């Protein structure tokens, strides 16, 4: 057997939190110039392993090698010195600074003790040209798109001399076009000799971008495969350890009376600009309505307005015959509405509280969760254990702090809390963002099951596949209005794409008809 020198080799890495092994003798070998995907269920231990590699966590045991030599990565400074850089999912940029200022922040070039602005501009220009990543160096971060902000994060890592770049779910917040651009950038980077490790739950992206993939299951490395030799289905099965179905089986819907009715709604965004402009929408009992749209077209404001998190300027929101316009969030919750918010850290969980407390967040002031103002922790704990079991929330115990859970498991906990109250109207934003395929399959089934019990379900997602999979009707939102309502069985991703870009249904169909005509010529 030939001994290959890997640019990075993590050998027998174990990381324990108390008695719990988040990483259990994991082996990971990265070749120079490859894109290596890390695949595993929520809570499998991917982020933990990458935190060990980037010096944020110390392994309990195991050794890291670089080019065959043992190295110690005691802190992020060591990682940086060794050329290991992390492109964070939640960008760590300063909004009020320019692109250049952000990139050089903490690493400013100086000349005789003074900031050498000229050199920093030149350095940035050189790097962005070398890797084909154009940016406007003088733009403020607050003024550029999410895709551009990610580009700045990547440039920042390169500026610091990274040769091994770790991407943690980099496409979660990107539009389809931005994803394509990122894939091109990654390919460019490895062509220039960089190595990339990418954590992603999206199997089609692994197929598109990665050379090899290491599968991690419950803290253990299971297998490393050549991506071209396996199908997405095989990857999914390998990761979960059973056969996974991508398509949710469901009976045709049987919609009944209108549960949610939104009429001529006007809502402003955080900057005071009109985000929702005269929007109408109905959701009936026994149906799932999916809202498709490009991020930033009013989805966030619409859901926040319905759930009482944002002021409604004019228009009406009715729940059956009850006017819930501008009621307080708690009054809306009490009206039998469940809400899985888009931003789970801001609105979904109190990260410093335990899982048990988080699961009781909407109900703690009722019996049996409390009596005469005193919390019944025994009941809260046993209820949390029931939900943890039922929704397969991977955690050490119901007493674990919410922040110690992996992102996907935090999401499962919120979904469990909101669904288990059996709300007549369930609103879910980005239900499966960051979830693994097994969990997605499960959540989709639960959404359909909730519908089949005669409830109304409203889903907002940037994933067209998800919208097509779970919805009975798809409402396309563009510039704060619903521009078309389509039947998922009769539409295509192309048609939805055009509607999302602002075409009317008629225009979209004409355009697609014309396109077909052109190809036939
Ligand atoms: N600081 C911590 N204290 C206790 N447990 C932790 C801590 N950090 C992580 N864990 C646990 O380790 C396990 C692995 O978490 P990790 O974040 O590495 O998973 P992941 O594979 O990245 O998941 P996801 O895909 O959901 O992001 C989880 O069960 C988590 O609860």
UniProtKB/TrEMBL annotation:
Residue ranges of domain ABC transporter in the record: 8-243, 260-504
Membrane topology listed for this record: Peripheral membrane protein
One Pfam family of this chain: ABC_tran
One MF annotation (Gene Ontology) recorded for this entry: ATP hydrolysis activity
Cross-referenced PROSITE patterns: ABC_TRANSPORTER_1, ABC_TRANSPORTER_2
One GO term describing the cellular component: plasma membrane
Keyword entries, A-Z: ATP-binding, Cell membrane, Membrane, Nucleotide-binding, Repeat, Translocase, Transport
Compartment list: Cell membrane
Gene3D superfamilies: P-loop containing nucleotide triphosphate hydrolases
Similarity annotation: Belongs to the ABC transporter superfamily.
Name used for this protein in its record: Heme ABC transporter ATP-binding protein
Organism listed in the record: Vagococcus teuberi
């Amino acid at each position: 057997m030939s001994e290959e020198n890997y640019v990075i080799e993590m050998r027998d890495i174990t990381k324990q939190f108390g008695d719990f092994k988040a990483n259990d003798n994991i082996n990971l070998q990265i070749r120079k110039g490859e894109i290596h995907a890390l695949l595993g269920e929520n809570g499998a231990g991917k982020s933990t392993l990458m935190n060990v590699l980037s010096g944020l966590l110390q392994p309990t045991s195991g050794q890291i090698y670089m080019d065959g030599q043992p190295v110690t990565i005691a802190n992020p400074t060591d990682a940086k010195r060794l050329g290991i850089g992390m492109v964070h999912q939640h960008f760590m940029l300063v909004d009020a600074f320019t692109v250049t200022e952000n990139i050089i922040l903490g690493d400013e070039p100086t000349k005789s003790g003074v900031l050498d602005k000229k050199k920093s501009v030149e350095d940035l220009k050189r790097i962005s040209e070398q890797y084909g990543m154009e940016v406007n160096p003088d733009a403020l971060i607050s003024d550029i798109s999410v895709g551009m902000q990610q580009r700045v994060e990547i440039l920042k890592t390169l500026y610091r001399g990274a040769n091994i770049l770790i991407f943690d779910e980099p496409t979660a917040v990107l539009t389809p076009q931005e994803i394509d651009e990122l894939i091109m950038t990654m390919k460019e980077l490895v062509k220039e000799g960089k190595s990339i490790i990418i954590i992603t739950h999206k199997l089609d992206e692994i197929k598109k971008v990665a050379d090899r993939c290491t599968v991690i299951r419950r803290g253990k490395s299971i297998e490393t495969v050549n991506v071209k030799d396996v199908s997405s289905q095989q990857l999914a099965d390998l990761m979960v350890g059973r056969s996974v179905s991508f398509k949710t089986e469901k009976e045709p819907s049987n919609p009944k009376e209108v549960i949610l009715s939104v009429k001529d709604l006007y809502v402003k965004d955080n900057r005071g600009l009109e985000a929702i402009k005269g929007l109408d929408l109905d959701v009936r009992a026994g149906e799932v309505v999916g809202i498709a749209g490009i991020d930033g077209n009013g989805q966030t404001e619409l859901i926040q307005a319905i759930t009482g998190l944002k002021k409604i300027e004019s228009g009406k929101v009715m729940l059956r015959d009850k006017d819930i316009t501008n009621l307080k969030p708690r009054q809306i919750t009490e009206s039998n509405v469940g809400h899985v918010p888009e931003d789970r850290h801001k609105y979904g969980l109190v990260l410093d509280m335990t899982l048990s407390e988080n699961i009781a967040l909407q109900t703690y002031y009722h019996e049996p969760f409390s009596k005469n103002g005193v919390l019944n922790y025994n009941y809260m704990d046993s209820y949390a254990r029931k939900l943890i079991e039922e929704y397969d929330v991977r955690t050490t115990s119901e007493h674990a702090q919410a922040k110690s859970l992996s992102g996907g498991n935090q999401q499962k906990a919120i979904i469990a809390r909101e669904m288990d109250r059996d709300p007549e109207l369930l609103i879910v934003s980005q239900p499966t963002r960051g979830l693994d395929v097994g969990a997605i399959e499960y959540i989709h089934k639960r959404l359909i099951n909730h519908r089949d019990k005669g409830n109304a379900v409203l889903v907002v997602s940037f994933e067209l596949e998800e919208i097509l999979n779970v919805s009975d009707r798809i409402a396309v939102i563009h510039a704060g209005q619903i521009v078309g309502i389509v039947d998922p069985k009769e539409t295509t991703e192309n048609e939805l794409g055009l509607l999302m870009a602002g075409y009317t249904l008629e225009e979209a169909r004409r355009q697609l008809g014309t396109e077909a005509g052109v190809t036939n010529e």
